Amino acid sequence: MRILTIVGARPQFIKAAPVSRALQREAREILVHTGQHYDRGMSAVFFEELQLPEPDYNLSIGSGSHGKQTGEMLIAIEEVLLKEKPDWVLVYGDTNSTLAGALAAVKLHIPVAHVEAGLRSFNRAMPEEHNRVLTDHVADLLFCPTSHAVDLLAREGIMRGVYLTGDVMLDAFLYNSELADRRSVILAELGLRPQAYYLATLHRPANTDHPAQLQPLLSTLAKLELPVVLPLHPRTRHQIEQHNLLPESKIGSLKLIEPVGYLDMLRLERSARLILTDSGGVQKEAYMAGVPFITLREETEWVETVETGWNVLVGAVPGRIQAAARDFTPPDSRPALYGDGHAAERMTEILAHSGS
Ligand code: UD1
Ligand code: UDP
Question: What's the rounded Cα separation, in Å, for the pair 23 and 19?
Answer without folding.
Answer: 6
